[in-house]
Structure formats: C-alpha cells, structure tokens
Amino acid sequence: MPTILGQNQYGKAENRVVKITRDGATHHIKDLNVSVALSGDMDEVHYSGSNANVLPTDTTKNTVFAFAKEYGIESAEQFGIHLARHFVTSQEPIHQARIRIEEYSWERIETSDANSKFIGADEVKHSFVRKGQETRLTQITYDGEKWEVVSGLKDLVVMNSTNSEFWGYVKDKYTTLQEAYDRILATQVSSRWRFNWTDDEQKMPNWEKSYEQTRKHMLQAFAETYSLSLQQTLYQMGARIINNRSEIDEVRFSLPNKHHFLVDLEPFGLKNDNEVYFAADRPYGLIEATILRDGCEARIPVDMTNL
Amino acid sequence: MPTILGQNQYGKAENRVVKITRDGATHHIKDLNVSVALSGDMDEVHYSGSNANVLPTDTTKNTVFAFAKEYGIESAEQFGIHLARHFVTSQEPIHQARIRIEEYSWERIETSDANSKFIGADEVKHSFVRKGQETRLTQITYDGEKWEVVSGLKDLVVMNSTNSEFWGYVKDKYTTLQEAYDRILATQVSSRWRFNWTDDEQKMPNWEKSYEQTRKHMLQAFAETYSLSLQQTLYQMGARIINNRSEIDEVRFSLPNKHHFLVDLEPFGLKNDNEVYFAADRPYGLIEATILRDGCEARIPVDMTNL
Amino acid sequence: MPTILGQNQYGKAENRVVKITRDGATHHIKDLNVSVALSGDMDEVHYSGSNANVLPTDTTKNTVFAFAKEYGIESAEQFGIHLARHFVTSQEPIHQARIRIEEYSWERIETSDANSKFIGADEVKHSFVRKGQETRLTQITYDGEKWEVVSGLKDLVVMNSTNSEFWGYVKDKYTTLQEAYDRILATQVSSRWRFNWTDDEQKMPNWEKSYEQTRKHMLQAFAETYSLSLQQTLYQMGARIINNRSEIDEVRFSLPNKHHFLVDLEPFGLKNDNEVYFAADRPYGLIEATILRDGCEARIPVDMTNL
Amino acid sequence: MPTILGQNQYGKAENRVVKITRDGATHHIKDLNVSVALSGDMDEVHYSGSNANVLPTDTTKNTVFAFAKEYGIESAEQFGIHLARHFVTSQEPIHQARIRIEEYSWERIETSDANSKFIGADEVKHSFVRKGQETRLTQITYDGEKWEVVSGLKDLVVMNSTNSEFWGYVKDKYTTLQEAYDRILATQVSSRWRFNWTDDEQKMPNWEKSYEQTRKHMLQAFAETYSLSLQQTLYQMGARIINNRSEIDEVRFSLPNKHHFLVDLEPFGLKNDNEVYFAADRPYGLIEATILRDGCEARIPVDMTNL
Predict the structure, then answer these.
(1) What is the pLDDT of residue C117?
(2) What is the pLDDT of residue A26?
C-alpha cells in the first residue's frame, strides 16, 4: 500500500457544560466549553472502517457531563485532569487524551443598593452577568505517565495611550514608515503558559490562584513597560510571569499590533496633538515569541494563528 | 417611467474613532464606531448618476474625525448631536441626518499593588483593558427641527440560576415540552430606549449618568424578578426603567432565550439536582416587546433582528 | 399603572431543518433556517406571567420539523405559508404569524469523469457540496386575511473592475477626496423584494423560478450599468427587477461600498495603472434605497442594518 | 538573567491585495490575503527594544503590494515564493520567511443571454461575483536553502445523504448512542497538503492545476466512499490525493462531523423515513489525521484547530 496513516486523533469538540453549585441561596457558576481528543490504536478504523477500538465521540460528550456531577468543577485544569485520566486508564486502545477547555467568567449582579425596589430585598445571590473580557483556556495532555498542562487566555484587549515609540529600524527601498516618538500601543493578547507540574507525585499548583496572578503580572508588565517595540513589551510580559510564578516554565504570546493611526487633521486647519486616532482593522503587525525559564525546553507549539 | 425611487439614505459607516484626552499624566479614552446616514434631495444621483447634491461619504468620514478634535467626545449622544446638526444645517440638499454610534468601554489596568516591580511605580494612568461586556449604542436623528435620540446596548449576557418557572401554557398536537418549576433563565440583552428630549429648547439629559442608571435598573429588574415567563421578566425590566428614568418614554427589548437544558444523567446512575446543564446554541426562543410610558407613542422600530 | 405594553412577538428562532427527498438513488436537499414569530392576545403573559395564551416556542420548533414531513419543502416561500397559516388558524390568541427563512443552496459533487476510481462508478447522486454564495431569504407574514411575502438575499459579493467613475460631487471644508474616472466598484448585496401576491384567491407565483430570475436580473444590471455613482447602479438593479418581474412591486437594497483603493506605488518607482488595489474593511460607504413600481406603496422597512 | 527568548517571528498579517489584469476588455482578478512572518537575528529587539535588525512590518506590507505589480500574481504559491525569497536574500538578519496566503475565487457574471437589456450587449468581461465556497490556502517557508510549500483549503462543506453507517463501536458505562445503518455524513473540510518540491533545482509543479485536481480527487473520494466511519472516509480522501498527485507527499485533514440528527416525529403520529433532520451546531465530532506517501516524513503540524 503506497499510503500510510500518520498522527490521528478524534473526540467530541465544544461540549458546553454549565455547572451550578448551590450554597444555600448563594449560587456559584462554572461555564466551560470542553473538547476531547483521543489517540491510540486507531489504524483499523481508518483503513477498514472497523470501529472495534472506537469509543464513540458521543460517549466522550456524555462523560464530560457526567463528570461535572461526579467530580464537580473545581477549576478547568482539575476538571480536564479527571477527564484525561479517565479516558487513558479506562480504555486500552486509547494511549493519549488531550482535553481543551475554554472558560467564560461571570460576576454577580449587584442588587443591594438603595435604588432597588425589590420588596424585602436582600442581596440576590443567583443572578449573574457575563464578564465578557478574556476567555480563559487550558489544555491537559496525558499519556498514562506524564501530564502536560498548558493554560492561557485569548481576546484580552489592552492599550497604552503613551510611553510607546518606534524608530531606528531598517530602511530598504520599500520603506515609507515615519518614525514615531509617542504612539498608541494596543494589542489583543493571546497567550499560553506551560506548568512544570508533570507528575502525580508532584504537588499540584493552585490553578485558580495561578491564573489570577499570571493575568495580573501580564497586565502590569504591559502597563509599566516604556516600549520601544512591541517585541520588547512582549518579552517583559513573559519575563514578569516567569520571574513571579515558579510553577510556570514557558510562555508563548501572539500579539497583533492593533494599529491606531494618528489622523491627519491639517487639511481642516486643525492640529492633532496625539488626540484623535483611527483604529484600523487590517492589515496588522503580528508579533509572536516564546519566553522560557533558563534551562527549560520549549514545548508550546509556535503556531497559535494557523495556516 | 414605470419605476420610482422610494426612501433612500447614504453615508460612511463604521468610522472607528479613538479620542485620547490627557489630563496631565492621567489619560482618558473614548472609543467609538460612528456611522453616518444622510437623506434629502437625492433623486438625481439615483436616476442619472449626477453627484451635484452628493457630499461624498469620504467627507462624512473626515467630519467625524475632525469633530472629535473640534468638539471632543463628551458622550456618544452629544457627539452624534454635533454631527447631525452639522450635516443638516450646512448642506442644503441634506434634509435629515441619522448618526449611529457604538461605544466600547475601557477600564484602567491597576498597577499600584505590592507585586508591581516597576521602579518608582506610581500608579500608571495611561494603560487600559477593554471591558468587553455590552456594547453601548446610540442613534441620533435630526431633520432640522426635531431630535430623536434612541440609546441602548447589545450583547449583555445575564443568567438567573433559579427563581424561574414555565408552566400552564397551551398544549396542541405538536407540544412535547415538559413543564418546569425551577429552571435557568439566561438571555443576551439587546435593548433600545427613546428619550423624550426632542428640542433644543428643552434641557438636555445627562447622557452618561442616564446610561449608567438605565443599565443598572435593567440588571436589577432582571435579577429581582421571580419569573414565570421570559415575557414577564422583559416587561419588568422595561417598566423599571420607565418608572425610574423620567427622561425615557419607550423601551424595546429583543431577548433570545438562551436555553440551558438539564442533562439527563440517569443512564449513568446519577441524579441531576439542577446542577449540570447543556448550554444550547440553536434554536432559541426569541422574545421581543416594547414598553411605553402611558400616553406616549411607540416610535422605536419593532425589528431589531432583521430578515 | 404608568407603563403599558406595546408591540410584542415571540417564537422559536433558527430552527435548522434539512429535508432529504429520495427519487430512487437520486437525492434532493432543502436546507433551511426557520424562525417563527407570533403575536396576538399576549398582554397577560407580560403583565402577570400567565402562560394561558402561550403556545410554547418549543412547540413552534416541533411544528417546523413536523411540517417538513407533512407538507415537504417545495420552496422556502411555500413552506413558510404552510407554517404561518397553521399558527394563525389553529390558535385563537394568535392573530399574526411571521415566518423568516434562510436557505442554503447545494450543488452535486460530480463523479462521472474518467479520473474517478470508483469500481463500477455510475454517477453518485447523493453527494453534495454547499454552494456557499449568497444566502436566500424569505419572510412570510399572515394575519388571517392578507399575506405579505418579502423575499431576498444577502452576502452576494460582486465587483466591476472598470466602468465606474465618481466625480462632480459637493466639496465642503472637510472634503479631501480626489475625483475618480476609472475605479473598482464592489459591493456585498443585501436585497429584499416584495411580491404583490397577498390573497389566497390570487394565482401564486412560481417561487423558485422567481428567485432565479430576480437574482439574474440583479446581477446583469450590476454588470451592464456604466456607473457614475453606486446610487445609480443600485437604482438600475432595482428598476431591472421591477421591469422584468411583474410579481414584484418593491425592492430594497443595502449596498456597502466595498472600497478598493488604488495603491500608491510611486515611492517604489512603480506606476500603478489600475492594477494593484488594497481591499479595505472599515469604514465603508453604505448606500440604501427602495425602488417601487409606480403607484405602489412602500412597505419594506427601510432599516436592514439596525442600530 | 533567568529568562531567555525562544522561537519568535513577526511581520504584517492580512494584507488584502487585489490584482486586476486587463487583456483588452477582458479582465482577470486575483484576490489574496497575504500574511508575512519573518525570523532570524532578533534577540536585541526583544531584550532591549533596539530595532536595528527590524525591517518594519509596514515595509513588509508595502513589499506585498509592490510585488503584485513587479511580478504579477500567477498563483498564490508563486507569489509567496517571490516574497519569501526577497525577504531572506535581501536582509541579512532575516534567516527565514513564512508567507501565508488565503485566496478568494471569483467567477464571471454572465450577461449574454436573451434577457439582457444592455444596448448592443456583447458579453461584459469585467464583472464578477465571488464564488464564496472554500477558501484556498498556501504557506511558503524558505530558509535560504530549502523550500516548504503547504497548500490547502478550508470551509468546503460537503454532505452524503446516504451510504454512511456507524456501528460496532466500544460501549462503556457512559455510552447511550444507538447504532446507525443509514445516516447523513456531513463535514466542513479543512485540509493541508505538502508538496515534495523543496529546491530551486527541481521542476516546479503547476500550482493552479495541482489545486484544481487535488480538490476534485478529494471531493470524489468523499462522494464515492461507502462510509463505516468518518475516519475511513478521511483516509480515502487523503489516499486518493497521494495516489493521484505525485507532487504531494502528505495530507492532513481536520474534519468536524457536522451532525444531522434524525428528528423523532412519532409523538406527532408521523414516520421519519430518513427524511427530516435537525442540523446541530455544537458539540460536534472532530476527526483529524495525516495520510503520508509511504517512506515520507510527516511535517505538517498536527494542530489545525488550536488551543
């Protein structure tokens, strides 16, 4: 046979599970989008269509919902670990499981103020508004021995309205760009970070606290860096995380440079003193890099944008 | 000629203007998406292609950016009023202007905590993260005499995890739905409200405060209503606004019922005590209605979803 | 009570129904997205939450799927007519039904050529590829007496690479645009057209043929018009339809001017002789108008883009 | 310093270039979305913000537009090869260039039929309608010595309305799926294929013909395979390409199983004889695999969906 099968994986993608936990009248939400990808001894289903080794994708979906009840959802990472372990240890033909999770965050609707007309209004504790900022991400991979946990976020839009320059670059025959000494720097952060927890014997990180702190360090580094290039800012964001979070060894960023062009108002007799900008869509600069703890191996795939 | 021209309008849509205001080291952002639609004496351009009465859409774009400098952006509503007045009063063939604005809100990145490594870190006052929740909307219409201001929001996602029932409905031969006595009620609010300010002689509302309070009343009514149907909740949301905001005479809602289906876990020997839900995409219920101050006329078009 | 209920409607939106018809080994597809909106005697559900007059949206969904079996799907229009008639005539509190349908078209995968390796390959007649061009639309409204049928399309992207000019326009202090004597004219057509069939006594149009012919006339008018403005082209597209299709009395267009800017290559020592263009996203001109058969009333809402 | 820089790249993404070629009155279009990613000796810009080695992303944008004039756009692949060679050979610090291109196809608007009212209408040869089916893709990577060309497509939606079964699978405690002996098989094809052209000394493939033939073989294999699992169909699609196109050594697919669920019409007294289906959105099965020419190395990254 002149063709052979290479890497392959399958499972149910985008299982939208919402878990409500009731602590008396106070409710808590976890809102996840869970995707399962399994691989192992799957040659026959590709070559002949025999499903003898195939746990249906429908079953992987059922498992996601059942586990939300059986184990609860303490964190996206912990939930993914339960799922990955189950698939690899319960099905002989499955040698590896990869669980990807998106998490959407919610905050409470405040109802206790004086304007509330609700009769006998105590604070309502079962009402939520979706936060709608970044989407939190995690990916759990397990092969029966080692764990790889890569968490991250996407769609976090940030802007510095000053403290950004860009000059001193290469100029070739196609270069027309003017140097800038005070520009807006804005990006939509997509980031992934890899934990050095790989083994059931190690102490597991506090996933919730780790996320909150990593996000904070990233934002503060963005705000506090006086930027000579988006590459420099990117590096500072990654280094700040590595330096502050010992559980993380590697960070990858994909940062579109969301251009805000100063509008030329001179034709109208007006001076634009870094006040009025046109927010452009396409094209955009795209800056991507990995920052590593010294001595550690890079394992996060470099491609977060795809062909 | 057997065909005639009916209503028509034209202009530049989606002008993305960002205005930075510097108050010393403290910066402020306004981030708008402005669409201009003009109408008037425009038969000839349709019939013969004569542009003699046509102010180019490119000019309307330039005007948006120039006005951000000339007038600043105090609020989306005030900015739209400046623009609409300009087009109608400066161009004889233009009899009516409609300015639509989307506004994206930003909050400051906090940098003052103890973890911040910035040397000599005072709080940074030029760094922002996009809030990413609802999009604020306004539409200003001016015909040279009267103003119509319709503001609103879209994409505000809310959920009550209890205090919602649905029963006692009509059952015909196609009805299979089971009655529900404790369900999740979730929706993605799209709302528009019309102000009773119509005349330059009237005192203008405080647009920023009005928006903030209207949004708050809407959210609180959603949270505090014990719901027997999404229609009932919708009505309470509108009535709460009309009763608390004297500047508003009419509210329209388009509320998709974002179904969260309780997952049947019995096949797995598990009991689902209102804990685990499947968040469905399509189809969805769609509930739409207008709430009016008694004696006022309905003027907001009923269709917010389009053919 | 100081607030009252205005116009309201409800139903299940975006029911995705696919109907396969088997004519021996030859299969046929209809692929629709059906949205139901009902209105009538619905005050109580808004005021008190009583669902006594409410046919559940879930039932309207079931009806869509059941009718695909009971009546088949001859055309989107005919299918919508069956549904609208059913809801209005079978439920006393429902006084009006509006059915909106999107239709996705498919074409057959060709398998009969010499390269096909299929053993004993006759042409396969059950394999399809989605056409992926415009989405066909229709909206059926019925109040128990009169019908209104508005059909249309969206997302049909067209371009003329010459025979378009733009000059002779108004110039004010904000005008910087240069006149153009040979430009690209491109747009993404969104159009709706209203039929003069309103009564069961009238002969019903051939909906499938009408759509095909209306689309063809629209495209040909776009191609054949030497354009001095997009408004002129729009008018010709509408007039061509009215003049050729006696079943249609009114056409509405919403045409974004998808700007293709000639790139300035002079800084690189190159001459751009109407060859290389930058296809821009935002902002864009937006040209909207209604064309009517003389003597007919305009009934299609002017707003196809929404606040 | 405890942190180090890993893999990094930068450039201007999504340059939307449209090239018109005039052959007398007959015009031709190429419509591309070009993304440039450069890497090399870029440590300093990350560590210190020095841009001394950085060719601005704005310059890479200018180069795309200038090359459309200088070299024309014979095919997306050939255009990418010109660009990649330029960046690597003209800038010493740049060691590798990766050019990604999306191509949108257009077809002519037909105007020659009898219904055309155009006075003296010859066929119009400058009017186009966007085809709107799949998006064609290519990625060119060059390091100064070797080329890697990976082409592909996305968003090609296909369906077989019969000749698909699914049974004989593993059943565990979470399995509830019923076996199916005649189901709809539908997917939205995302595929990439790698050419064995790697060297300027080799004869270059005919990129346009290769795309057309590869697409045809893929579609025919989908149509002609009697399917016992989507994995089996996927393998047949890849094998058909490898067996028929000697210029291609590797194919990767990411195939969502777009579920069409047979609707249960029994509650309404109706029998659903494989006629009426509900087209579901989420969750969906996701089947991914690589097919290789025997003896060849797999080089296409396995992840086409991303974390």
Answers:
(1) 55
(2) 97
